[in-house]
Design brief:
The protein is an all-beta fold. 0% of the residues lie in helices and 49% in strands.
């Protein structure tokens, strides 16, 4: 397809993901001469320090997907000609910050991503509004997945696992039929790409400084080396022989592959090309200091310093260039004509699935989000909330509430969506769940079925953290954290009139709070510049600190009404301690290395606690510290924060009247 001399036709071009400041820059026009206007459009991101990790796109729907820090975003109605703010939505929230790729399945309209810290590969319908729904498709025997590429037409995914023994695997799009296709001669494969026309897999090995290629079975492997050799060589796994493709390289710095036109690389001051077998070598453009080159139909492009250059492939010199700024982190081609118009079993209406549609070689299968069960129609998902003997826990990473059965550790997802909910408590009298929503700075209440959602109290400019219920009055005690100590306080809300009173102020980032109504005490933790555990009467008087030394991050707090003990978790020192109500007889019960302990509750003879680095709730004996089999690690869980328990345990204070 021939282009005019100046412009890329229609809505086509290159998209650059840039750092410092963060932006998406579109290249829309090749300049006629160095002094002419260059049609590039930049859309700045907020905050400017955001780090774009990976980019994928759906040109057909004019969507660009970007993995930015903890989330994956969709830039909607994207056009390379625009320069105004466009709608941005969160596709998924809860990824780890790491060098891991995202990939879009343009046949089934699903989005896939690696998480190199949580060690799994997940997917979700790209255009499903619910940001908490996703499915882990591969998590067993993964240590550091980073590279990811899809061939939607063949129904295949390829991924790298950069463990001690790195490997590249192939699997079906639903994660089945895993096969190791390359397991030797690898160090750290950060990026994978597929040539769907010729069924070839390319990868970049960061540790070996190579770009390599094989077929979809890992055979006919060729290695293009650049660290110390002055040549490009090809290695055949089948024959075990090495052949030289090109010799005399001075300083090769970049290589790109074009399915239609072969290989392109930068050799010190010259962009050169050849077919994939090394034949028909051509020199194209004289360059100096090039860091990245790419080929797009009839044009060559390359980045050198803060400029991007273009030329026709037949030219020997640069014909166009433009200043584009520094800190370019990647280049992507935005052209819907390169995207095959094929329809998969999940393409229309998510395949009829309520939650997740997984494409198979023939047909599709519906899956449900964590804590939900597929119904007899094999399409819809639902769950039945537990009515007794359960723990409620907030999954902060994914903005969801979960129930855990105390007896068997079973898990149910509650139909309650929150923004950033860290603190929760369950009212055992009204059977209402109360939660702190940091995104709106509100304290909310809801039934376990998601109905009757009500605003309890708006905290204004401060973040509500944790809550406790006084069962003698029904009043709600809570901690609130502002930007300074003078704005941080402990307050109480009257349950029927919703009147509010500040009890304690000028606190150092108060977090957990518990009450002992029959003795008139409230206890709280502070984790700011000073880390302490405090006690006061429930009207805010007689404030004192019962533990002030050898405390790191006191995150969780619980009262054992039977033994008159107070337990707390220390997220920095990774230990659980206890003392009497005055802070005396202090003891370390147990340690859990590298756990980052958070919340804790007491039930009978046992403690239950969460930790940011544990994808489970842990159960242990409250006097011996010995762990009890309860709940195994679930890789789909995110950062677990606050706990609330409902069971036949001791509740201090008479239940308040409902009228």
């Amino acid at each position: 397809m021939a282009f005019p001399n100046c412009c890329l036709p229609d809505d086509k071009g290159l998209i650059l993901g840039m750092w410092n400041p963060a932006s998406l820059t579109s290249i829309t026009e090749i300049p006629r001469n160095p002094a002419s206007h260059f049609g590039n459009v930049s859309m700045s991101l907020n905050p400017s320090g955001a780090q774009i990790i990976s980019i994928s796109s759906d040109p057909e729907r004019k969507i660009v997907f970007a993995a930015i820090e903890y989330s994956i975003y969709a830039f909607q109605n994207f056009t390379i000609w625009q320069n105004e703010t466009i709608p941005i939505s969160v596709v998924y929230r809860g990824r780890s910050i790491g060098n891991a790729q995202i990939a879009f399945d343009y046949v089934s309209k699903n989005l896939y991503w690696c998480d190199s810290l949580l060690n799994w590969i997940a997917m979700k319908p790209a255009y499903l509004d619910n940001t908490t729904i996703y499915k882990l498709i591969i998590h067993n025997n993964l240590k550091q997945p980073e590279g990811l590429a899809l061939d939607p037409e063949a129904g295949l995914m390829f991924f790298s696992d950069n463990d001690v023994n790195p490997r590249i695997e192939k699997a079906s799009m639903n994660g089945d039929n895993r096969t190791v296709i390359v397991h030797t001669g690898l160090k750290r494969v950060l990026s994978l790409s597929v040539d769907v026309i010729n069924s070839l897999l390319y990868w970049a090995d960061y540790g070996r400084h190579t770009v390599e290629v094989s077929d979809y079975y890992g055979l006919n492997r060729k290695v293009l080396r650049q660290p110390t050799s002055s040549s490009i060589k090809a290695f055949s796994v089948n024959s075990g022989t090495t052949s030289t493709i090109y010799i005399g390289l001075e300083q090769p710095t970049s290589l790109t592959v074009n399915s239609h036109n072969g290989l392109y690389w930068v050799d010190d001051s010259m962009i050169k090309s050849s077919s994939t077998n090394g034949s028909d070598i051509k020199s194209h453009v004289i360059t100096f200091g090039v860091t990245q080159a790419f080929a797009y139909k009839g044009y060559l492009g390359w980045i050198m310093g803060n400029k991007m250059y273009f030329s026709r492939k037949s030219s020997k010199t640069a014909e166009r260039y433009v200043d584009i700024g520094e800190n370019i982190k990647g280049v992507a081609i935005f052209d819907s004509s390169l995207q095959e118009d094929k329809r998969g079993s999940c393409h229309l209406l998510n395949g009829g699935c309520q939650d997740i549609c997984l494409p198979l070689q023939t047909g599709r299968e519906c899956e449900c989000d964590l804590g939900l069960k597929l119904q007899p129609d094999l399409k819809t998902c639902d769950s039945k909330a537990y009515t007794s003997n359960f723990i409620v826990v907030s999954d902060y990473s994914h903005g969801r509430m979960l129930q855990i059965n105390i007896d068997k550790g079973g898990l149910v997802k509650l139909p309650i969506s929150t923004g950033n909910s860290a603190g929760i408590t369950f009212d055992k009298t009204t059977k209402e769940l109360l939660y702190c929503d940091r995104s709106t700075k509100n304290i909310m209440s809801s039934s376990l079925h998601g109905g009757n959602t009500t605003l309890v109290y708006a905290t204004g400019f401060v973040n509500p953290e944790r809550m406790a219920i006084d069962y003698s009055t029904g009043n709600i005690y809570y901690t609130a954290v502002g930007s300074t100590s003078s704005q941080s306080y402990i307050g109480v809300i009257h349950r029927t009139t919703f009147q509010h009173k500040t009890l304690l102020s000028d606190l150092h980032s108060p977090r957990e709070i518990v009450v002992y109504p029959s003795k008139g005490f409230l206890f709280w933790t502070e984790f700011g510049n000073l880390t302490e555990i405090g006690r006061a009467y429930m009207d805010g008087s007689s404030k004192t600190y019962i533990a002030t030394t050898d405390i790191g991050w006191p995150n969780g707090l619980a009262i054992d009404f039977i033994s008159d003990r107070i337990y707390w978790t220390d997220g920095q020192k990774n230990r659980i301690e206890f003392s009497d109500l005055n802070g005396g007889n202090r003891r370390v019960l147990t340690t859990d290395n590298d756990a980052h302990l958070m919340s804790i509750v007491v039930h009978g003879q046992y403690l239950y606690y969460t930790a940011w680095n544990r994808q489970r709730i842990t159960k242990m004996h409250k006097t011996t510290g010995s762990k009890v089999t309860f709940m195994s690690n679930n890789p789909e869980l995110g950062r677990l924060d606050s706990l609330a328990i409902y069971a036949d345990d001791v509740v201090d204070g008479n239940q308040y009247p409902l009228s």
